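To assess whether the prediction recovers the assembly geometry, we first specified each molecular entity separately, as shown.
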Amino acid sequence: MEMLYAITTGILTSCGLYLTLRGRTFPVVVGLTLLSYAVNLFLFSMGGLTTDGAALVNEGSQFADPLPQALVLTAIVIGFAMTAFVVILAMRARSEVGNDHVDGKKEDRE
Amino acid sequence: MIQHLIVLPVVLPLVAGILLLYQRQGLVHYKRAVSVIATLLLLLVSIALVRQAASGEITYYALGDWQPPFGVVLVLDRLSALMVLLTSLLAVGAVVFACGGDDEKGSNFHGLFQWQLLGINGAFLTGDLFNLFVFFEVLLLASYALLLHGGGKARIQASVHYVVLNLAGSSLFLIAVGILYGATGTLNMADMGYKLASLPAEREGLVTAGALMLLVVFGLKAAILPLYFWLPRAYAAAPAPVAALFAIMTKVGIYAILRVYSLIFGEQAGGLVALEQPWVWWLALATLAAAGVGVMAARDLRLLVAYLVLISVGTLLAGVGMRSVEATSALLYYLIHTTLITGGLFLLAEMIGLQRGKPGTRIVKGRPLVQGNALAITFFIGAIAVVGMPPLSGALGKAMVLVAAEGTQRVWLWPLLLLASLASLIALSRAGSTLFWRSHRGSPSGSPLSRYQWFGMLWLLSAAPLLVAFAGPVSSYTQATGEQLANPQLLIETLLPDAGETP
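The predicted structure of the complete assembly is given in tokenized form:
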């Protein structure tokens, strides 16, 4: 379980990082989205992974740490709003500058 | 009422911002009045907060009466009170300047401005690491929209870089917070500092990783060397009142570095004490060097002021890197000076650009200015203050930072800081003589500037003589702040009364 979780987070992060470093705005936006998914998963795991436990305090038996859940909720909301904003910004940049390069250059080749 | 005073710097801009959303267009006078009155009220509240904090007592406000470490708290000590006061002083100048016409170039300027203040004040007051993230996001979202205010190609280009970088920074912030929470089991900064004292040895690596990741995030906000490349373009493209308000944004990063590493990684942290120090010190010096070069290379007055902001960041972070009471005191004095003066210079640059017409703020020959003499004199005063020549506040601030350096630190800091100051002196005198003296023949044209703009700019620049006149009380306050920061035990005991008994 832990292994699967860690590998998933790692793959998401590396894909996100790779795409964020691209030169066009669309891959950058997708990269940021993947990065925020990875971060959300990571945050969620920080209270320790609990399987078959109660979601909240359940007397006596095993229960999951509630705080990371609250943190993840906040992070998801903020991340979602930011993604919406950056999509609109990328479209504005595309229409004002005339191309979708992050530096506003016409050609990608150096 | 008095116990609710601490939450007012957050609630007041929030309510004002909501009121200002009422209509997208129109109601100009009503909106300006609400925004200016709210900012003035904020100034009064923050003066009251400074008076409360000056006694040396640390007070906190537990939201919903959930006591720390479980609830979210706002903490008021000397440092946070000072930063909130500084924000509101800067905001008054910027918002009055905006009433001169900048607020009508797009929609919802005043509402966004108030929310930006909400985010900044919240970041200064919060005692909770995750809430620091939330307030950072609030101030960033407002700043994204404000940066785009008025539109235009340059602003959108600068915005794309600024937004993408800060989104990546937010992800890193969350990862760092997650690591620190996983290692210590708390998010309250005071509690985290307390728990680090009894940290199991195998978790030290984890905490170090989290702490240094936080440094990257704060360094991005503060614009330290490898992470500053977004700043000159964004600040030079932003509308003038927004750029002036952004002068405090880099200081939010510096405040966060000061707060987190003095409180969480203070003396009680054992092997992790001062783990940020070498990084901050050397990168600050490198920032100074790079900013000195940038100042000389800038061909636009606004870009020049943006690089002056970078010089101040380098100076301030060098002060943080020294990590002594004297250095903290000196850097706080310099921080007040540099925030207000660079804010004022952004406003002044916009006024000069407006009068010059087509050449704008580019440092090239242009037509004579209608109000050239008055602008030239204020530019002269602002330049003297920001370069750090006597008799204005910059000289005092820089001298205090220089004196605070000890031993081999002097060998590195003195030449770099003095050379960076020399570079800004040369660049500013070149800019001034080109803008005001090397003009085309012919009669001056252009319309006189609005009195709101004059008031806003002079309000900020008047800090330079006032900070010298009241250098005594201000520096004794910053000295006391430095001592309070060096002794985080006080804050921990105030927030967690149980912590003192079982060390």
